[in-house]
Amino acid sequence: MDVFGSFALVLAFVCAIYAFGGGIAAIITRHPLLIKSARQAGIATCCLIFLATLSLEYLFFSDNFSIAYVVSHSNRDLSTFYKIAALWSGQEGSLLFWSFLLSIYVFSVLLTYRNKNGELMPYVGVVMAGVQIFFLTLNNFVASPFKALASPGADGVMNYVARTDGNGLTPLLQYPEMVIHPPNLYSGYTGFTIPFAFALGALLARYPGEKWIHLTRKWTMIAWMFQSMGILLGAHWAYAVLGWGGYWGWDPVENASFLPWLTGTAFLHSVMMQEKRGMMKVWNVWLVFITFLLCILGTFLTRSGVVSSVHAFARSSIGAWFVGFLSLIILVCLGAYLKNRDYLKSENQLDSIVSRESSFLFNNLILLVACVAILSGTLFPVFSEWITGDRISVGAPFFNKVNIPIGLLLLFLTGVGPLLAWRKTSTESLKRNFGWPLAIGLVAGVIALLFGFRQIYSWICLILCVFVASTVGLEFYRGAKVIRARSGASFAASAVELTMRNTRRYGGYIVHVGMVFVFIGLAGAAFNRDLQKDMRQGDSMKIGPYTLVLQGFDTKPEKNYTAQRLLVEVLEDNKPTMMLYPEKRRFTTTEENGTMVAIHSTLQEDLYVVYAGTSPDTQLPVIHAYLNPLVKWIWFGGVVVVLGTLVALLPSRRAVLVLSGVQQPAAQPLAHGLAPSASMREGHD
Amino acid sequence: MKKQVKFGVGIFVIVAALGFLAWLGYGESKTYYHTIAELETLKGSALSQRMRIGGTVAPGSIRHLSGRVDFVLEGEGKTLPVSYIGTDPLPDTFIDKSQALVEGRPGPDGRFVAEVVQAKCASKYEAAPGGKGGAAPSPTERSGM
User: Fold this and answer.
1) pTM score, whole prediction
2) Looking at chain B, which residue has its C-alpha nearest residue A619?
3) Which label site among A81, A267, A303, A588 has the fewest CB atoms less than 10 Å from its CB?
4) Is some CB atom of chain B closer than 8 A to the CB atom of A303?
């Protein structure tokens, strides 16, 4: 099966070269058969990568311990779930997984547009094949996952050897999130290849109009959604597994995943200016280029050992390949831009500082500043070594100082931006749209002050969250009211109808509400508390409303590890409420330790209990308990963001209404009254 | 023209304010990387900087004392005694022969006083042929948000 897999990879490489070279030839000659064959080579590349990936999974499931990658990342007792995840738990496999996910996108794009956009698609195909060639080069020649174990025999000839069992999967990765976090994050990273390919393709082809933006919106949103999920799942994994009580440590790899998200978010917003007003064309093209570059950079940072990190794979020579690829992309993008920059001329100018355009402009500016700050902080050790010879790193205070105000500004714009009119907003409309939300936000702020809220950033965050939620609520309320007045349906049904008529706009609002929830959760961090204590059996410790009583210990042998558990009874306001079982795990094959945190999570706060080892003085177990307010809102907000994105991906119902109206004019008494519907009002879309 | 000036001022104020905050954060959190051997050659103010030092934990050197954990880091043929005084529990991967990264300042008596210890498991993974993955270091530092 390993031979099959590596053969599939070699063939995929050959096909990708053909898709690339044949594609270029097709663009030059415009020969229809050549165009078709290049496309089919692209499809074949994807199928071969699927086969190679399947064969690596097969090697894991058949416990084939003659393959180095399987030995390093699996063992017989590893559960099915984690045997799937073992595919992306190391360097070689995760690079193959990158190719695999990219292939899913490329495959879908090639099939979806096989008979459409004939002028553009060959260019897009060439760019996608180019990216695939790079990753297939790594899969085939630099980090092949199919290497067999071999040792030199007496006669100097290499003999294949097989082990009886593997080394097992790193304990830190044996956690459910680890099975879903990397696929999500990688789907985000790889997904941004598609808008990149369309943007570069359109620029090279001088493809007229904003068509490429319409074509890629869906793909960008899918990639963005996966990236968002990947980041939040990663944060949740860090929270639940690493046992340090937090979810985001500004670790280089965390930052690397955040960077394309920031530019991708900026892109999703600024394309609207191009669609509506024909502005920001250069900016948009470069935003996509940069987003894709940051995706590759993120993949590179994780693998090269350039910056030390929790997640980073071991140092390896693979970095040089990535640096080469990054430089190549920059050169190609620059070349394409310089050659065809006249094609990107703006059709309009900014009219007023209080307008939708300027809110997008500031949104983009702030997202980019955040991106630059995080990128420079992450790469600071590298740059400082080049410039001064000293390797200097910056820590969490640096990132927090810059990014908390940025986050608050963004939150403010989230509330304000969508309700400003294009071109120029009248004072009258400002009052109408923001009067109530502002008042409600300020009232919330005053109430919080009276309740002794003294953390300035959290306080501002609270006001802004209420403000943004109110603006969105008001929008839904007004729109739904109009529909209800005409259809007589219930308020909820009207709100749903409203959403379905303009999924893009109202889906966007739902995403904004999700972000508000995330911010509420982040604001809670200012009030975190923790307490550590050596505990004798029967001892208790008090944190917030909870009292923890150590009832005993036990040892639980599991298939792959032995768990030492503390049995902790939790009393809330002196009433027994539940048992928590923080664990220490000892993994048999790797002789490594793992920690399992016990978390009791409510919307108000998380009680987070860690078995922190044995005290050297007293030989007693140590419990480290944290009380983290509002954390659950972050995960909940993430779910809302995903739902909102899914809504925005749905086609709007309006088109259907018009169509059925044409077919059955008599049966549509509503259609007449719908024309000035909420979504058609001045300045709203 | 006036319009552009307005935008310019707005952008400048935002960027300048954030730049100032970045500079404050930088001053507060900058940490120098040094090797154990370099530490001996540092003089004057360089010795009072916050720094990060990497090395291998000398086998048998980990001693849990009250309020601190003492151990010895080895690297490039030199050794460095370290006292860890942080409150977070040491990472699960911190054992004999593991690669550790300590963050803190040199003490007056030649001991390095660490507030943060990160550890990466001994290189057993990398010794396996072809295996590159290996264990990730689990940090105790993480003073994020």
Assistant:
1) 0.86
2) B64
3) A81
4) no
